[in-house]
Amino acid sequence: MSESIILKKCGVRFTPPALIVTYTNDVGKLHRRTMPLRNFNKNSGVSRIVQEMKENKRHEKYLRHMSPLQLEKLIMILHDRLNGISLDECVMRNKGLDTVDPEEDLNKLDDVTLKRKKEIMDATFEKNRKKREDPDFKYDVEVDFEQGAIESCEWDSDKESDEEF
Amino acid sequence: MEDASLPSYDPKGDANETKIKIICLGDSAVGKSKLVERFLMDGYQPQQLSTYALTLFKHKTQVGDQEVHVDFWDTAGQERFKSMHPSYYHQAHACILVFDVTRKVTYKNLPSWFTELRHYRPEIPCLCAANKIDVDYSITKKSFNFAKKHKMPFYFVSASDGTNVVKCFRDAIKAALAYKSNSTDFMDEIMKELDNMTLDGDSISSSGFDATEQEEDKESAAKS
């Protein structure tokens, strides 16, 4: 089926666990679809479930309209909730995952969280990106930043700065 | 001495063809892969070596009358252990040390990367790339002391809009070539000696570069 659908809303149901989306089809009629997450329990790995849902033939035509980040977020909320975390806290945790704290050491994150942070940064990367197809694309872009008043970066003058800087 | 499935960068080579290894170093998500991809555009064939948690990008280029095969080594998650396997550094001819100008911690971690690099490769050229300047160009008015202190060539780059990526990588290739043609690292000297013993004297003359010219290259790479 190749009908073009537009996703309107997405959400989750906790018992039994499911993803729910509303969408309009090509004639503009509003529909709702519930996608049960079978075998989902508190020990399920988030990235594995995300992958399974993406690959599921029956859900694929709806989920491909959802950003991977959004999908991960919803599944993460379900996962946290099943692990006894309060709904408010689940949402808070998710908000934290949507921003990149400049002070945070990403080397210390688990795979799923690191992947999400990278997706957030990828959004900026794509926004500023000059692609080969762009009319003003140049392969070798050289800019000399040496001239002009140069002040030293405050990162060098922290208390924590040691001999190394 | 090294695993058979990792490529070797034999110190000798014929006059018109040479193989070099350039490694990328720095924290998770500073944009190391993105920088290599931007430099190579579509002309690359990445090779995943998942057992070693690394990606190899092979690149062929011409420098003067030399055909140069460059392997860019990129980490695939191994950097999260704040340390790389010694094989990552083994036989490397140059290093591009990357941090993310939007995240201070990635700058603060440079000394530990640099210390590890120097432990394995005391003398290879190291270039410093400050990535993601497209996020806020005002950062380019600042100076970063770390690179200056260690006398590294410093580049403000953006893998996203392409600023200075090509320049930085071309300089890295030049520096790697210069290093290879008159390497003074102790281990390399030993490797050459070992080669001497098994080969006949004539075939091990160095790679045929003009040593003076290479020295100039090294200098110009360091100045830029």
UniProtKB/TrEMBL annotation, chain A:
Organism of derivation: Ridgeia piscesae
Superkingdom of this protein's organism: Eukaryota
Record keywords: Cell projection, Cilium, Cilium biogenesis/degradation, Cytoplasm, Cytoskeleton
UniProt GO cellular component terms: centriole; centrosome; ciliary basal body; spindle pole
Biological processes annotated in GO: microtubule anchoring at centrosome; vesicle targeting, trans-Golgi to periciliary membrane compartment
Family: Belongs to the CEP19 family.
Compartments (UniProt record): Cytoplasm, Cytoskeleton, Cilium basal body; Cytoplasm, Cytoskeleton, Microtubule organizing center, Centrosome, Centriole; Cytoplasm, Cytoskeleton, Spindle
Name of protein: Centrosomal protein of 19 kDa
Listed Pfam families: CEP19
InterPro entries reported for this sequence: CEP19
UniProtKB/TrEMBL annotation, chain B:
Signal peptide: none
A molecular function GO annotation: GTPase activity
Region of interest called Disordered, as start-end residue ranges on this chain: 202-224
Entry keyword set: Nucleotide-binding
Gene3D superfamilies associated with the record: P-loop containing nucleotide triphosphate hydrolases
Pfam family, one: Ras
Family membership noted in the UniProt record: Belongs to the small GTPase superfamily. Rab family.
Family matches, as PANTHER family: PTHR47978
This protein's name: Rab-like protein 2A
Taxonomy of the source species: Eukaryota, Metazoa, Spiralia, Lophotrochozoa, Annelida
